[in-house]
User: Fold this.
Amino acid sequence: MNQLPKDPPAPAAPATNSEILSRYIAMTKGSAARYTKSVEVFPSGVTHDGRYIPPHPIYVTHAKGSRKWDVDGNEYVDYVGGHGALLLGHTHPEVMLAVVAQATRGTHLGANGDLELRWGELVREMVPSAEMVRFTGSGTEASMMAFRLARTFTGKTKIVRFRGHFHGWHDHVAFGVTGHFDGSPTPGVPAAVAAETLLCDPNDGPGVTALLEGREDIAAVIIEPTGSTYGQVPIRPEFLKLLRELTRRRGVVLIFDEVVTGFRVSPGGAQAEYGIVPDMTLLAKILAGGLPGGAVVGRRDIMEALDFVATAKKGREKIHHPGTYNANPLSAAAGVATLEIIRDTDANARARAYAQRWRDGVRAIVIEEGLPWGVYGTFTGCHIFTNPEGMPIDPRSFDPYSLRYDQLKIKRGGTVVTRLRLAMRLEGVDIAPWPGGPASATHTDRDLDQTLSAFRVAVRMLKAEGEIIWPKG
Ligand SMILES: Cc1ncc(COP(=O)(O)O)c(C=O)c1O
Assistant:
């Protein structure tokens, strides 16, 4: 059997005799100095695991549109995009005006307000499954509440998840994402909690059918509708259709995690794009326009478990849900401004068109350079598969569906990804660790030219340093 890691592999450190590494260290001296202090303060010197990269991350001072600048004065085309939260790019003028205007009126009013109402109405108008809305502090919190609502509604406890899919970092979803694919708990997670989750392989129709038809204790199925890590391991739309039919027939709550895809794939998210409406949806990131915030939205009869009057009428106990930062006014201001722009402009279409050109451009270079890599992605995403196992891949015909989730996601890394990211930074481009990233509506032709020429230079450096893993024979 295929051996998979219990724990996720950390990004690999490049060899010390690397030109990429020595040039990176030379150009990021200020970041290096700050990192030395950070490791004393923060575990691994970071505040989000995704920001960890040896030898040190960059320390960013400010950003605008598609670009950002670090403490050493280096300018980068940015493809981290606020971990996917910034479809409209950094510091969008209308979003910033809305936030600043609200900041002067109060950052926390401890009361209902017009902004949260407008925000909730926009979500209902744009997201097909959003009959009712409950704002939360983050996507993780939305995921916790969705499970509680589904269990209350069905009276059942088990949650079906897909291997590699990420739904925040709370106990129920902490394993089976980058390791522990047998469902065993990660450190600090009680075994009894892990046992409430049933893991399936993505796109395994027969497997999930047998599971749902063979058990009576399943409350919900949750999925990232375009696939884990924004389509790094893509999900077939037919699989979503199957899930919709199965869950409806079996009285199981279907939850789409649209924390990344919401308002990004289309103004109404993946569910609007595919015409498949789940019972509940998790939202965050773009929802709050680059500020903290999340929401669980869904069917009125499920969401009513949060309603004082509806539960009293039914003689049921209400789900208690406070949360100091639920619908925080600053997040609401950014969220309203962002969602209105997305609803009223071609922001999604522009980001999608850019991503298509980005993927095509990177693929053309991969072909020209004769690399055994795959370039793929849907909507606003670009994924570069660097083939660490040295499979015989033809980039012209690469089909991500031909590989398993573990090949695409878990074994994708190694020093080649770390070095590719560092080498791209040398050329003024900061890609996400996928490697690749989400495009925004503010990326320009100039950004694309710089990105593609950076990519060509980077892969030539990788070749020169012997980092490309070539197929044998
Ligand atoms: C698909 C998905 N779900 C849930 C979350 C968790 O959201 P948050 O970081 O706001 O807690 C994330 C965060 O990256 C995500 O990508």
Residues 362 and 452 are 6 Å apart (CA to CA).
